[in-house]
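Long-time lurker. I teach an intro course on protein structure, and each term I like to show students one example going from raw sequence to a predicted 3D structure in token notation. This year I'd like something fresh instead of my usual example. Would anyone be willing to generate the tokens for the chain below so I can use it in lecture? Attribution to the forum is fine with me.
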Amino acid sequence: MRKTTLAFLLLLIAATFAGTAAFAHGGKTHRLMGTVKTLHEDHLTVTTTDGKEATVSLAADTKYERDGKAVDRSALTAGTRVSIHLDEDDKTALEVKIGAPAEHQH
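-- Reply from a regular --
Happy to contribute to a lecture. Here you go:
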């Protein structure tokens, strides 16, 4: 009986921590996709694919990439599509993948 109770308690504790870890991440992908609306020295504003605006901080160690190759920050301009990998805080860009300029709608 003691072994069964101990095994049950250990299983309950393991399940509790597993559930907490899943909720701590919040199910977020930590990725933001959209079009650069404005670009500043230390941050940018993106119009997301669902039409909302999000401001993202740019750090000294933020990496920039276009077509699978590293590029300078100067390749990032207003009007370009981006996919941004965010830090755990969901506010700082770790990596910005720069795509083509967004098509203008008439």
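Some talking points for your students: The domain at 31-101 is CATH 2.40.50.140 (OB fold (Dihydrolipoamide Acetyltransferase, E2P)). The longest strand covers residues 53-66.
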